[in-house]
């Protein structure tokens, strides 16, 4: 069984700290993808900034594991996010590959 988590980041569109750290942030996300933990990620296109990251973790991983994992993101470590919200999510209908 896979546990999914939706991670919502809030930041100002065009924020210079976000722009500066984006390469390191994307490298971090690439490592999650390589580990089979990243389902999808990307910014919203409405001009207000912010992004959504979807994670798939193992059956024994919970909310605190998702938080601990996302604490490693350079955006979080450098304190450039205006907000971060992590919620466990149940994709009742999905096409996501399972990592289990």
Protein described:
- This protein is of the alpha+beta class.
- The protein has one domain: Alpha-Beta Plaits, CATH 3.30.70.
- It has three helices and four strands; from the N terminus they run E-H-E-E-H-H-E.
- The protein has helices at 16-34, 63-70, 74-77; strands at 3-10, 38-43, 51-57, 83-89.
- Strands 2-3-1-4 form a four-stranded antiparallel β-sheet.
- A hairpin with a 7-residue loop joins strand 2 and strand 3.
- It is globular, with a radius of gyration of 13 Å.
- The mean pLDDT is 93.
- It comes from Corynebacterium maris DSM 45190.
- This is YCII-related domain-containing protein.
- It holds the Pfam family YCII.
- InterPro entries: Dimeric_a/b-barrel, YCII.
Query: What structural class should be given to the helix and strand makeup?
Result: alpha+beta
The number of E-state strands comes to 4
In CATH's first tier, which class applies? Alpha Beta
Average per-residue pLDDT, rounded, comes to 93
- Shape label: globular
